[in-house]
Amino acid sequence: MDLLAASAVNWSRAQFALTAGYHWLFVPLTIGLALIMAIMESLYVKTGDEKWKIATKFWQKIFGINFAIGIATGIILEFQFGTNWSNYSWFVGDIFGAPLAIEGIFAFFMEATFVSIMFFGWNRVSKKMHLASTWLVFLGASLSAFWILVANAWMQYPIGMEFNPESVRNEMTDFWAVAFSPVAYNKFLHTTFSCWAVGAAFVVAISGWYLLKKRHADFAVKSMLIGSIVGLVAFVMLAVTGDGSAYHVAQKQPMKLAAMEGLYEGKEGAGLVAVGMLNPAKERYNDEADPYIFKIELPKLLSLLGYRNINAFVPGIVDIVDGGYTLPDGTTALSFQERRERGLTAIKALADYQVAKEEGRDADAANHETILRENYAHFGYGYLQTEEDLIPNVPLTFYSFHLMVMIGMYFILFFVVMLYFLYKRDMVKSRWLHYVALWSLPLAYIASELGWVVAEVGRQPWTIQDILPVQAASSAISSQNVITTFILFAVLFTGLLIAEVTIMVKQIRKGPDSEGLKA
Amino acid sequence: MSLLGGLLVFLLFVQGGQSMLHSLSRKEDEKRLLVNALGRKWEYTFTTLVTFGGAFFASFPLFYSTSFGGAYWAWMILLFCFVLQAVSYEFQSKPGNIFGVRTYRMFLFINGLLGTFLLGVMVASFFTGSEFTVGKGNIAGLGTAGPVISQWQNPLHGLELLGNLRNLTLGFAVFFLARTLASLFFVNRLSHEVLEKRSRKFVLFNGLPFVVLFLIFLIWTLLAEGYAVDPATNVVSLEKMKYLHNFVEMPLVMALFLLGVAAVLYGIIHTVFSGSFKKGIWFSGAGTIVTVTMLLLVAGYNNTAFYPSSFDLQSSLTLQNSSSSEFTLSAMAVVSLFVPVVAAYIFYAWRALERRKLSLEDLNSDGHTY
Fold it and tell me: Among A56, A232, B172, B287, who pairs with A41 as Cys (CB 3.0-4.6 Å)?
């Protein structure tokens, strides 16, 4: 029975990862293109140059193809919280549901309404109204990202709530703490800039392809210019907000940071691994094997990033399991076993509370509630069995993180070169750069997906940090059911992805002067 | 929440229209016109569904947990056919779509059929009950069922709802209602003589089965046992003619319900008998919103369990035991103050795009077609 349940949990995780992974192929392009379209249309309205209008309409067409499939995958994500993670929904729905509802009311309606004006309104509303609609589509898409990231950030850093043992759920006590938690704010910026980055890389790549084919040179150079400016801003800001993310992870999810860096033994003045290869022979967190085959470190940088102090102590995986080091707030860290004890105490207190309530022993219930509250910060540890349960997949987190950072650095250089050639040299003749632009596109997608791998794999086993691990969060459905829907979704999404890509390729081949775009 | 539900059912006219693409049109250009008339509205249905999901999550997280995690297959199939819908409009007439226009229109048909029917079945289960248990002690290790609080007791995970005749009746009623509304929408929107005439006939063909099926469901439900909650002890019990009592004890709800039904019927009948009346969709549409809203109020107000468990009466969800905390609900209430703003810009956009009726010529001049 236990084995079956474990497999259902893993299949539910796989299904969520599959849906989220596909969803994230489409969303960044939607948001990024929306920004680039809005800038182009602003130039059209300002200068009256029809070429900007044609460019806007071309990218709008690509946007439309991509938009629908992003919505399709998104709706599945929202409902999966109920279908596959019903205990999670019960436990924290009081807090988690609110941002989703607000997203619907504020963001989706804005997006859907103004998308229809943007598509169908060229001849039906005024120029300025149309421009406003395009900007509002961008705003709606960004707001939608904001609220969903508020929800995600809350899972990584739960605040503004109190546990109610009567209803067995966490209830919101401070809306603003949830909506504007520093983690949410930083996550939103980092993710939004990553969307701009993908949009920019996409526009530049397609423009590069046109130049290679010696078609629409003027359109391509114009698009490249906008794309490169947006791209450079995005990647520089990604570095800045990435630094913010690392800081928050260090404070709130030290285990995730340790996994990102493959750091087993903590130290003061820890360095940041620039390049490294993990040792596959390392099987347990506390065995003797060296974690690395090789690594090149930037000295002291990890301490600086994580704690804003070059000599700060950064705990490794072993330290977090064993406890005993001094936390930034001056207290001593508890070991895994100590936290597990307290988690079990909290869970038992909840059970005792419920029995006491049922039997009408209110004074006893109050006592149990006090015990529960004292230990609630460790509640989720009671569901974990061994030390290993606490440790995320280190290689996956480590390589995802480092590859993402490397690609990010590459793109800063890439866009600087692009802008240099656009302003100082003849871009149309620089064929090698067109190839580079085209082949850089997959890198942008890879980096953007890897970002989510780091964020979500790195926080395992928690659905809500320290409070609820995945084992206790899922629905009571057998793995056969989940496997079936997993396969259905995998086939469906893959089919739709292939259709989307071929449709896009056809539209791109047709080019910006195809019928219906001029007018 | 009830109002959102009402809106959602009204907006199902898009699905209703999708289910008639084949039967209503004879020629390809007619089909294209229908697809495009609906295509300019599909995002609204979709967005309402998403918002409905989010709002349900925020206001009744325990329902979200119990129903979605339990009636797994019913919801999954529903979601699946909405995924098909989302891509079908955009992809169907684009070159390179791999599966061909027929497949995408088949997707739209499937969504039109199952999307409406299954939602009807789910709403019916608010009156007929489902097989689940709720054990708050599970998460603390009490009992032997494992940590999951709400557990579905039927291995078919929602498909068993299709075995209940009363559920099926409402399912088909909603399906025909959606088709009726779609026909009324076409009468109102299209400037295409042949299609308009045919749509009028379709109002009758679909309106009739809808009215019959809906009346059967209504009378059956009013006379059947309902799930009553004792306000003092919170004990749930079966009460004869509970929903009829609810109507009688809430006269305002009954009055509005009857008014809604009358508006729906007026829209249908007037469109069928008068060759020039085009505003039927507004009467029937508004009527649908009011009727469904009132029906959902009857399912949950006046000490009634809105999501009853036929397996274990005491596990039934009531407004009191499954809603969000007061704090979250007041936060959501503040958020709802912005709904009129949202409604205003939707109204503006609808007006801006629909000032002219849709004809075949528009499809070529508006720039974006499906």
Answer: A56
Closest to B208 (Cα-Cα) out of B171, B247, B251, B172:
B172
Q: CB distance A75–B87 less than 8 Å?
A: no
Q: Is residue A272 part of a domain?
A: yes
Task: Check if the beta carbon of residue A220 is closer than 8 Å to that of residue A431.
Answer: no
The reply to whether A35 falls in a domain is no
Q: Which SS3 state, helix, strand or coil, does residue B229 take?
A: strand
What does the pLDDT read at residue A519?
A: 39
Residue A199 to residues A334, A431, A502, B315, Cα–Cα distance (Å): 45, 22, 19, 49
Is B320 at the interface with chain A, CB within 8 A? no
Residue ranges in chain B modelled with pLDDT below 50? none
- Give the C-alpha separation, A403 to A442, whole Å: 13
Give the integer Cα–Cα distance in Å for A258 and A278: 13
Q: How high is the pLDDT of residue B86?
A: 78
Indicate the pTM of the whole model: 0.85
Q: Which residue of A has its CA nearest to B151?
A: A476
Residue B274 counted as domain residue? yes
Nearest-CA distance from A169 to chain B in Å? 10
The reported pLDDT for the residue numbered B230 is: 84
Report yes or no on B206 lying in a domain.
Answer: yes
Extended strands (E) in A354-496: 462-464, 468-469
Question: Looking at the domain assignment, is residue A304 inside a domain?
Answer: yes
CA atoms of A74 and B53, how far apart (whole Å): 12
Token pair belonging to B175: 């399906």
B10 SS3 class: helix
Can you give the residue range of the structural domain that contains A288?
259-319
Contacts of B321 in chain A (CB under 8 A): 167
pLDDT at residue number A2: 46
Say whether residue B311 is in contact with chain A using an 8 A CB cutoff: no
Q: What percent of chain B is helix, strand and coil (3-state, nearest 5)?
A: 70, 5, 20
From chain B, pick out residues whose CB is under 8 angstroms from the CB of A171.
324-325, 327-328
**Domain presence at residue B122:** yes
Dihedral over alpha carbons B141, B143, B149, B154 (to 10 degrees):
150
> H helices within B12-161, ranges in order?
13-19, 21-24, 28-39, 42-59, 61-63, 69-70, 72-91, 100-128
Residue written as token pair 């809604």: B260
**pLDDT per residue over A270-313, tens digit each?**
888 888 888 888 888 888 888 888 888 888 888 888 888 888 88
Report the run of H or E that residue A329 belongs to, with start and end.
none
What is the pLDDT of chain A when averaged over all its residues?
Answer: 87
Question: Which residues form the domain of B53?
Answer: 2-329+341-365
Per-residue pLDDT at A441 exceeds 90: yes
Task: For residue B341, give the chain A residue with the closest CA.
Answer: A106
Cite the DSSP H helix spans in A103-216: 109-120, 127-156, 175-179, 182-212
Domains held by chain A: number: 1
Q: Which contiguous run of DSSP H or E holds residue A216?
A: none
DSSP 3-state assignment of A242? helix
User: A271 lies in a domain?
Assistant: yes
State the pLDDT at residue A87.
86
Residues in B touching A89 (Cβ below 8 Å): 57, 61, 64-65, 68-69
Are A408 and A238 contacting, i.e. CB atoms less than 8 angstroms apart? yes
- How many structural domains compose chain B? 1
Contact across the interface for B68 and A89, Cβ inside 8 Å: yes
Distance from CA of A132 to the nearest CA of B (A): 12
Q: What is the pLDDT of residue A203?
A: 94
What was the ipTM of the complex prediction? Answer: 0.82
Please check whether residue A96 is in contact with residue A103, taking contact to mean a CB–CB distance below 8 angstroms: no
pLDDT on residue A516: 47
